[in-house]
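Inputs:
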Amino acid sequence: MDSEVSPVAQAADLRARLNRAAYQYYTLDAPEIPDAEYDRLFQQLQALEAAHPELSTPDSPTQRVGAGIADSLRPVRHALPMLSIRTETDTTPQGARTFDQRVRDWLAAEQRRTQLKAGEERLRAEPLTPEAVAILAGAPVDYVAEPKFDGLAINLRYEHGVLVQAATRGDGETGEDVTHNIRTIGQIPLRLTGAAPPVLEVRGEVYMRNDDFEALNERMRQRIAVGDKAARTFVNPRNAAAGAVRQLDPSIAAQRRLSFFAYGVGEVTPATGGGPNWHTHWQILQALKDWGFPVSALARQAQGADELIAFHAGVAAQRDSLPFDIDGVVYKVDALALQRELGFVTREPRWAVAHKYPAQEQLTTVQSIDVQVGRTGKLTPVAKLAPVFVGGATVTNATLHNELEARRKDVRVGDTVIVRRAGDVIPEVVSVLLEKRPDGAPEFAMPAHCPVCGSDVLREEGEADHRCTGGLFCPAQRKQALLHFAGRRAMDIEGVGEKLVEQLVDGSIVHSLPDLYRLGFVGLAALDRMAEKSAQNLIEALEKSKQTTLARFLYALGIRHVGESTAKDLAQHFGTLDAVVNANADQLLQVPDVGPVVAQSIRTFFAQSHNREVVEQLRAVGITWPEGAPTAGASLPLTGKTIVLTGALPTLSRDEAKALLEAAGAKVSGSVSKKTSYVVAGEEAGSKLDKARELGVPVLDEAGMRAMLK
Ligand code: IVH
């Protein structure tokens, strides 16, 4: 920088550049200068302020990192009370209609009240606003609908455009001064962009993104593991955020990476006459955006109850894929004149309502911890819960994954636990309420013997999972193996479900995979619940399944680590079953995506005589497939190429594109690595495209892909 320029001007210039960079980085998520450049400017400013302490200002980015430790949180009396919102008790989508009707009823009551008062006082009735008159005549009410963020409410006070104070809501009248912590939040401007009224209070929610929350808990677990007594994990992002905001030491908030959404204003002076000329809440949101605040991109204007219902459903559908937690949506009457007319009941405005979604977390108790045995013998501890309605469904089971995980969470029989179920995600025990643990509850331990067949349980070196060593001797493994074998993507035998497999195995009718094909009509029809017609259908389905492909057959065998796509690769590469059975490790490693672990697993499988026996018997009962020449010698245009599809292609669906590529010999994979030959990207391609660019993998569009197929 030019040394002629005064230190005051230098500092102002550096602050402006750093504040702009922070806005681009944190709020727009589109940095324009590299991190190193930011650090360099930041250090320059720090040096300048150190040399000239009189230059230090509250809006200086150097103030973000935490000036010192507060000795207590000072009370702050709010210039305007911070209200809460009424929660609509009807959680069905119809709740929106109830609210809309209530708004109309209130306006009608307001009209009667002014008329009555006018009558008593022999005056002319106070006119209602034109908006209210139109609504009473049947016009729809204009609303703004927003997500209800699950964090904590904060009031930010700006004087002459500079952040001077941040306070929690407290009891609504008096909150706590948390300015030192709020300054550390990169998304909160220390100085507003553009002109602002002399006093502007901005209200919004401080929250923690789910990925930041996971990262925080991971750091905490690492600290706990090395014996750090001060470390603890958090139950949910809201608690982690609220805890950070109320700390005395701002370095804690700085480490926790908090975020912010603005959704309203408090005191604004002057409110009129030279102040902002707002007529609607929507205009307020736009102004907040212009001043540099993050405002949710999900917020919408909505007309009448129907559009509120559509919003409620639309946001619900996205809820699980949002990067942060929401517990519902908020509807607000858009016109500020109508808001004033509607007013408040106690501390809740009549013009706003919270419409919640079913809670994703609930308390329940652990009735037992069962250990289930999977197809490969893996033992999975499962917490059996007192039934609880959470995330829109009744939950009675939650997997604890493995012993390590069960011990980490330290779930015990009799415990009160928080269970979480978000959308289609499998229910999970989030944490245990230790204060409610019954005396003498024993720690969970994996059994030494398989709970199903009594065989020894082993845990292999370096593996998290325990396994039953019983193999197909273990009825649990046999059942799972049969279900897998018959599955839609394997041999595709219609009618082989859990109930049937249970009867076949428990009744000692089926001992091995080939036994399935030896089932006679008489034996089947004698089974419980098996009508003649179903027995006939099953026999036909078994017959039909005998014509298959090598890939399906290999997958159906249930070789550890051989999923559907590896099975396809093996079939394509070797062409015949014998070639796969006899392949040595080096030959197996030639197959795309087959590494040492997979190769070893295939070798081990076919090295066992009883497995080769099963394969022989299956062929003997008539299972066949067209055996081809090995395609390892690149007979198709894309043989040996691994391709990743991402984003929406203009004319082809994902499945269509996949089928075309596979027909041309390519392998279609779900993740980008150094081995990826091409990435085919469409609209709204995300992290896979970034990864491809990072690794220098060539990127094609649909047209490029089609050209390659020719
Ligand atoms: S508006 C007068 N909008 O929900 C209306 N609140 O009791 C004042 N919240 O404490 C609040 N998302 O912390 C509003 N989009 C949103 C919100 C929101 C979350 C919180 C806020 C408040 C509580 C309601």
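Residues 83-85, 146, 148-149, 153, 169, 205, 263-264, 330, 349, 352, 354 surround 2-(butylsulfanyl)adenosine (CB under 6 Å). Flag for discussion at group meeting.
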